[in-house]
Amino acid sequence: MVEDSILKSISDDISEGRTEGLPQRILSICESEDDPMEILKCMSLLKLLPSSDAENRIAMRLRELADDDNGFTIASALQNLDCPLFAIEVLDKIKKSDRNTRLKCSCLYDLEEYESAFDLYGKIENKCVNDRILLSRFQSALGEHTMSVQTSAELLSEYPKDYDVRVAYANSMMMAGHDKELLKYAREGLKDKSADSLAVAAYIFRILGKTNAAGNYAAQAIKADNSHIGAMETLGICLAMKGEYQKAKITAGAINEISPGNKAVINILAYCDGH
Questions:
Q1: What is the DSSP string of 165-181?
Q2: Mean pLDDT by 10 residues, the chain (275 residues)
Q3: Fewer CB near the last or first residue (10 Å), C or N of the chain?
Q4: How far apart, in whole angstroms, are the C-alpha atoms of residue 238 and residue 220?
Q5: Buried/exposed code over 160-198 (b: 16+ C-beta within 10 A; e: otherwise)
Q6: Residue 271 CB coordination number (10 Å)
Q7: Which residues, 6 or more positions from 156, have their beta carbon under 8 angstroms from its beta carbon?
Q8: How many CA atoms lie within 13 A of 208 on its CB side?
Q9: Among 263, 254, 204, which residue's Cα sits nearest to residue 226?
């Protein structure tokens, strides 16, 4: 087991910009560790650093350690850490299930293999809310915008307060070009002043290019709930879009401390690429 003090030391070094030699240090820790969960903690810290071959080597080690008991957790973490190919390889070596199939669908989506993802979606036997959210994403990606809006609108009517459903609806509406209606939806949602509604508004303003407003609503959402990952992700992206890359990276680091390996970290860092 990797001692918490070691992980804290690495995290502090990253925050202070002392990154020289850290990828090799993290790789060395992972190569001597047999617990996949501990390795994933280290890999989540590695993602806060510039790309290196250490990432692939750690992902390969995780693939080797995967089995029917831990495979889904490993594959899910690898997808969140922007390693969908390795995630698929893990899923292909373990027992098939709806849970594993829907994760593979999501990985194929990340790889922009939309038709393959849509075809595989049909093999999920017992579909849940998140599957229908996934379907709306596939429909948008394949240019079926009317169908995507219909799918997400039906979900919204059933789950009007669910954050992920609301974000899915926003994405479908934006992709379909319904910007005015989407802005109206965002503003109406602000009436309850909840962290989720503020975060949804922030997300909508961000995807519509209104960065200042998005950052403002994201900050308000975080004030209402200082562990709201969606709001923190939007704030981090807005900071990066305004050129405040160090603040964006600090926000990504804060998310990683709350939820190690969360995909929101990767999304923020993508906007900081090269800085």
A1: HHHHHHHHHHHTT-HHH
A2: 79 81 88 90 83 86 95 95 95 96 96 96 94 96 97 97 97 97 96 95 97 97 97 98 94 91 91 81
A3: N
A4: 14
A5: eebbebbbbbbbbbbbbebeeebbebbeebeeeebbbbb
A6: 16
A7: 165, 166, 169
A8: 26
A9: 254
Query: DSSP per residue over 82-132, as a string?
Result: T-HHHHHHHHHHS---HHHHHHHHHHHHHTT-HHHHHHHHTT-SS--HHHH
Under a CB-based contact definition with an 8 Å cutoff, are residues 59 and 85 in contact?
no
CA distance 261 to 89: 19
d(Cα 121, Cα 181) in Å, to the nearest integer? Answer: 29
Tokens read off for 33: 């560790």
Rounded distance between C-alpha atoms, residue 141 and residue 176, angstroms: 11
The residue length of the chain stands at: 275
Q: Which amino acid is at 197?
A: S
